[in-house]
Amino acid sequence: MDLWCAHAKNNDFLLRKSFFEKPTCWNSRNSLMALEIRVSRKQCLSNCCRYRPVLVRAMGKKSPGNSESSSSNSSSSGNSDHSKAGGDGLKGNNPPGSNKSGDTGSLKSHHKPLDWREFRSLLYLQEQADNADFVCNQDGMFSGSKSLPLKWAHPILTPESGCLLVATGKLDGVRTFERTVVLLLRSGTKNPQEGPFGVVLNRPLHKKMKHMNPSNVELATTFADCHLHFGGPLDASMFVLRNWETTGLVGFEQVMPGVYFGSRNSLDEASGLVKKGTLKPQDFRFFIGYAGWQIDQLREEIESDYWYLAACSANLIFGGSQNNATSAGGLWEEILQLMGGHYSDLSRKPKQDI
């Protein structure tokens, strides 16, 4: 880590003397620094509410040299969802800025440091277990696992690139989005002229690319046996790919570590990776159409309780078989159950009871 800082505002959660005048640990030989922040967290038991101190530790290590040389050591709504034969599978205008590359490491290796999404999830899961222990044992000791499960999901408050939009009961009866899970490819917060967009993950079309009689050579050959999915009501299609090994793919935009997306203008690069053996056709998922919103539209829909927001592990997006994990209801139920609490209860209720 080349640069770090901590910024705190005056509020009721930071305790007095939360920040020390110097780091709690400094190792000049390894350029290692540790920082501790003490905060308070509200605990409500029966009729009594009190604040319980919590210690947050952060550690950073300065990278030797530049980031490239040390990279190996560093840590819209619509009403129809049908497709038409005779197209390319990837058609229409490309979504804005769909030809960028990412450079974050793989999630496959358990020896690599957690990225910020995983770290946040670990904190959330530990807090949930900690709260359960506090209620049961009154001792405040965390006894849960200190590593992430293979699959995880938890609620978040604001949309971000790589998060999931999980349809609520208010969308029951809306054919296009009923019980859907949308992967938000871009949150639309970086460019004020661009709204958020993503693809529906759990609407398989039960067709392969070759069934669409694509005119594009790469789609008709390299990706002929790839399954097709309904991505949304807007007329521009794209694909999502997984890559746990390579730390950066030119021509694609990273959604989260291990997951990238591209469109028609990056098909040549995608085909090249398959021909070189870097990726397999099974690592790609092709979507006909996509879902998009105006700048404030998605936020208004979230505030109106049309969508739950969740962060999730990358393997949830590609995990399981084509017929199970990406079925209309299977992934929707799985995500809600992983989110826990009342979300888990909602996943088991019939549509009319939600």
Description:
With 354 residues, the protein is of the alpha+beta class. It has 2 domains: 64 residues, no CATH class; 201 residues, VC0467-like, CATH 3.40.1740. The chain contains 7 helices and 15 strands. Pfam families: DUF179 (PF02622).
Number of domains: 2
What is the third-level CATH name, the topology of the largest domain? Answer: VC0467-like
The second-level CATH architecture of the largest domain is 3-Layer(aba) Sandwich
Main beta-sheet annotation: 6 strands, antiparallel
Give the percentage of residues in beta strands.
15-25%
Number of strands: 15
Strand order of the largest sheet: 4-15-5-6-7-14
What's the overall geometry?
Answer: globular
Order of helices and strands: EEEHEEEEEHEEEEHEEHEHHH
Work out the radius of gyration: 22 Å
| Helix share, percent | 10-25%
Please report the first level of CATH classification, the CATH class of the largest domain.
Alpha Beta
Task: Summarize model confidence as the mean pLDDT.
Answer: 74
Name the CATH superfamily classification of the largest domain. VC0467-like
The count of helical stretches stands at 7
The poorly predicted ranges are 1-30, 65-86, 98-110, 134-143, 321-326
Structural class, by secondary structure, is alpha+beta
* N- to C-terminal distance: 46 Å
